[in-house]
Amino acid sequence: MTKAPPTSRLVRATVLGRLAAGQVLRQAGTKVAGLGRSSEKRQLLLDRRALAAADQLVSVLGGMKGAAMKLGQLLSVLDLDLVPDSSRPEFRRKLAVLLAKAPAVPFSGMRKVAEDDLGAPIAEVFAEFDRNPVAAASIGQVYRARLHDGRAVAVKVQYPGIATAVRADLKNLALFLRLAPNIFPGLEMGSLAEEIRLRIEEELDYRLEARTQHEVAVQYAGHPFIAIPDSVAELCGPRVLVTEFVEGMDFDGIAEQPREVRDRVGEIIYRFYCGSLFHTGDFPGDPHPGNVLLRHDGRVAFLDFGLFKRMSPESIHLERTVLRAAADGDAEQVHARMAAAGILGEPDRIEPDEVLAYIEDAVGWYLADAEIEATPELAAEAMISSIDPRSPHYRKMRWQYLPPEHLFARRAELYAFGLLGRLRARGNWHRIAREWLHGDEPATELGHVDARWRAGDLSA
Question: In what order do the strands lie in the sheet with 226-227?
Answer without folding.
Answer: 226-227, 300-302, 292-294
